[in-house]
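Protocol step 6 of 9: fold each sequence in the batch and record its structure tokens directly after the sequence line. For illustration, a two-sequence batch is reproduced in full.

Sequence one:
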Amino acid sequence: MAYYRRIREMREDHDLTQKALAEMLGMKQPQYFRYEQGYRDIPTDILIKLADLYGTTTDYLLGRTDNPKTL
């Protein structure tokens, strides 16, 4: 699974809008939209913030594992 699909699923599972999540990450919604659509690569610091927010690992968000649990 491509990472951008997974970050969208995680956002939806947590009942967050793109706008709300973008604000939490300190960016504008169109910028986050580009990450979620796969138009732009996610910077490492944003990836780490998403993993912390969702209580999972960066490996899960990147599709390197299907286990969403943190270690």
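Sequence two, same batch, same settings:
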Amino acid sequence: MRVVLDTNQYASALLKPESNSARLIALAAEGHITLIISQDILAEIRRVLAYPKLQKLHGGPEEEIEQFIRKTEKIAIVTPGELAIDVITADCSDNIILACAVEGNADCIVSGDHHLKDLGAFQGIDILDAAAFLEILET
């Protein structure tokens, strides 16, 4: 199954190693799912994890964030990032998730963001939270 994780999933995985989000990244590392990502999403992960509030929570140096991002790049398919989508106007950064999913022929987007989850699906790509996605995988 080809999956795009929203930026909030990466932040959750780094901050909470026992979270559902961390389980998803582990599943990708083990080859049970195929992680799809774009350079735009990688840049957003860097930006979000550099927020002072999040830095305070994870307490790790910038190098730890870069290691996390390099590991993610190694286990993921990186899309060319050529597609532009403008569907979500309330939070334009969510559009990079949709574009990556379409460009990478994803089966699913996993997100905790209501702007994405409220869509339910986009161009035949289901949008689920991490718990719901893991439940599907286990059945």
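Proceed to step 7 once all outputs are recorded. Observation for sequence two: The mean pLDDT is 91.
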